[in-house]
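1st attempt posting a full record on here, be nice pls
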Amino acid sequence: MKPFTIRYLRLLLLTASLAGLVWWVAGLLSPYIRIGVNASDSLPGWVYVVWPGDKANLRVGDTIGFYPPVNPYYPNAFLFIKQVAGVAGDRVEFGGEFSQGADFYINGRRLGIAKAFSRGGKTLQHSAGGVIPPGYVFAWTPHSDSFDSRYTVVGLIPATQVVVGAQRLF
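the predicted structure (as tokens):
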């Protein structure tokens, strides 16, 4: 084998070993600390450590982990990693004709588009607008293909489903 190939294989083995060790340690610490995998490119990084915290004081911009409702896109008990875009008292609005997607706003600030179809061609429906009630958050990422609170199947996230803090590892 060429020296470059051997170095590459050693690095790959080391990375896999470290990832396995982190996963094992997180399993020992669970339910206190969990490992979340960002399965898309909606946020930078693909492995996050997630821990419980103060659910009563979630703020816009916080990165959180949560378990979404059962949906046709991800397996049950799949931990989502998203950011808080709206909290209790914030107003969510959708504008435009939805057949091609709809702009969505929180407190009058445009955050993006709720698409009419998934990347796989499945029909999507945007969430209902209105004021976010106490005990809920609007979770999202700025990526145009993010599967988040802008869609009915995810909707507003009850604080009871939020794990709270999430920090990128890799």
